[in-house]
Amino acid sequence: xxxxxxxxxxxxxxxxxxxxxxxxxxxxxxxxxxxxxxxxxxxxxxxxxxxxxxxxxxxxxxxxxxxxxxxxxxxxxxxxxxxxxxxxxxxxxxxxxxxxxxxxxxxxxxxxxxxxxxxxxxxxxxxxxxxxxxxxxxxxxxxxxxxxxxxxxxxxxxxxxxxxxxxxxxxxxxxxxxxxxxxxxxxxxxxxxxxxxxxxxxxxxxxxxxxxxxxxxxxxxxxxxxxxxxxxxxxxxxxxxxxxxxxxxxxxxxxxxxxxxxxxxxxxxxxxxxxxxxxxxxxxxxxxxxxxxxxxxxxxxxxxxxxxxxxxxxxxxxxxxxxxxxxxxxxxxxxxxxxxxxxxxxxxxxxxxxxxxxxxxxxxxxxxxxxxxxxxxxxxxxxxxxxxxxxxxxxxxxxxx
Length: 401
Ligand code: PMT
Hints:
Layout lengths: L6 E6 L7 H11 L3 E6 L9 H8 L18 H7 L2 E7 L1 H9 L5 H8 L4 E5 L3 H5 L1 H12 L3 E2 L3 E4 L5 E5 L3 H13 L8 E6 L4 E4 L2 E3 L6 H12 L3 E6 L11 E5 L3 H11 L5 E4 L6 E3 L19 E3 L3 H8 L5 E8 L3 H11 L4 E6 L11 E2 L1 E5 L4 E3 L3 E2 H16 L1
Parallel strand pairs: 1-2, 1-3, 3-4, 4-5, 8-11, 8-13, 11-12, 13-16, 16-17
Antiparallel strand pairs: 6-7, 9-10, 14-15, 17-19, 18-21, 19-20
Helix pairs in contact: 1-2, 1-8, 3-5, 4-7, 9-13
């Protein structure tokens, strides 16, 4: 009953999906939440305030003043009352106003006054959703810490098929439940995370790199931050964005740079999660100028070893610090992973194998086995990288206690 006695502001905007707001209210109220509806003028064209006030047992707020008696509807009080604000459905127009602070209706002024976490469930036509303007506005909202409940794919009001359907009411309610159920079991903990690939320069236009996208490491950073940790994320060259304000991100390019930053951050950290795919070797001398093609013959690059970041941190690890490594393998998986666990002085290692479909580089899923230094082995099914990150963090928390 994580929603019991929670105060939820439900913002409704002008979309055909507004009828689903009735189911959202019913679901929230059933779970013990108190719901206050704020609706835009366009929203009222799609669902009547009478339906909404009947279901929520509260008068619906739409205007700055009550038409009946001139009472001032205080968006500031409302913003302070709320434990969460959910805007469902959120149209492209409302998302744009939220992103740019265009406070021309009660819903937006409430949003701007709201101190509680904000959840946004977009609903619109597929082309509107895919438009760079909408995507950029959503990116802005994410950067404010708002949580976007992604729309699903399916038949839209226009009869076109694509991404833009508001998520179903029961799923939206689940997101809120998960949020309030979320443990803050990493509060006051400082976690260092490495993520992404490293690029080792050959010349001004070429490098040695790998296929890591950073998705696994960034999912870990988000989960740790949500569970209360202060995260230092050392990221190789990736195109991902970080959203949580508790993540301090330091971008690096090469293994040498990643090593420097990690060595500096580790002594003040409670734990380190080494998820980066670090190049083990780099060209001995990067050419100042672009290397030209020789007219004939082979070309040889002389490679020298990079520092092993995990092993270097393992060598200075002090009592109470926890170190988590990864092993990306293609054969003899367990043997290789166990070797790395010992060699790098890790507390546990997360094994992922490129032999498993949907695991490893670039995909949104992963399939892992956790091997700990006491010989414990736990295998997990294929899951989203976010869920995998939660499994890893659950294990980490038991060691940090
Ligand atoms: O980024 P994604 O596309 O989401 O892909 C995720 C991933 C496959 C990169 C990730 O799940 C993963 O397996 N990361 C580790 C990849 C790797 O380099 O594994 P390894 O077995 O070579 O290294 C073993 C451990 O030592 C790792 O914790 C690695 O970060 C660390 N290491 C390795 C070499 C080095 N010079 N310094 C290190 O710290």
